[in-house]
Amino acid sequence: NAGVMQNPRHLVRRRGQEARLRCSPMKGHSHVYWYRQLPEEGLKFMVYLQKENIIDESGMPKERFSAEFPKEGPSILRIQQVVRGDSAAYFCASSQQTGVMQPQHFGDGTRLSIL
Amino acid sequence: AQTVTQSQPEMSVQEAETVTLSCTYDTSESDYYLFWYKQPPSRQMILVIRQEAYKQQNATENRFSVNFQKAAKSFSLKISDSQLGDAAMYFCAYRSAKGGATNKLIFGTGTLLAVQP
Predict the structure, then answer these.
(1) Would you state the pLDDT for residue B115?
(2) What residue spans of chain B are helical by DSSP H?
(3) Which one, of A50, A49, A37, A115, lies nearest residue A82 by Cα?
(4) A43 vs chain B: nearest CA distance in angstroms?
(5) Percent of chain A residues topping a pLDDT of 90
(6) A86 in helix, strand or coil?
(7) pLDDT tens digit sequence for B67-114
(8) Backbone angles phi, psi at B72, to 5 degrees
(9) In the predicted model, what is the mean pLDDT of chain B?
(10) Of B52, B99, B108, which is closest to A101 when you measure between CB atoms?
(11) Measuring CA to CA, which residue among A115, A113, A109, A112 is closest to residue A3?
(12) In the list A19, B46, B72, B113, which could disulfide-bond A79, CB 3.0-4.6 Å?
């Protein structure tokens, strides 16, 4: 059973470009979470999505960042007009459901570097 | 708002010895879950152990066990018979069990564990 798949593993962008990060949850998982890890820090929650719905985006910057989880295909975290401060590791996690003790399984992350 | 604190930025242990990593948290909720995740140099996030707050019995997973003190809001991780492969960053995390909560994980800042041969 494949785990959470994130791609690309590494992404390099110049300031002002767009970054698209993809996450395919584990089979049977319909809940996706995105976290950001800045250098030398812990992971910080960004957004929680279910299929076609954003449930909680309280951790996501109001501008330039957006996320989606379409009916078909992976979840996408999109960062427009990237700046140096966006350089970080972005992790996706998925779970089967909420309300019960369902752990979140993490992907290997996408390391975003802004030149 | 809930917070998680790991007061030990770095720890070191001799191979085959035992080490305890500290974690405290702050919450006004009575029902929640606590986790320890391991992040080796490869940067994967690996679930080590989990604890439901309503359970008094401490969770154990092979060489890993926790000391959960609900009244003190403390959740320490004990690694017995430490192995070189245990070297990693360890994160403590909190998740609400409240109905309607988003179930997001709240992480501490991590403890970097070195294992000396």
Answers:
(1) 97
(2) none
(3) A115
(4) 6
(5) 76
(6) helix
(7) 999 999 999 999 999 999 999 999 999 998 876 667 889 999 999 999
(8) -85, -5
(9) 93
(10) B52
(11) A109
(12) A19
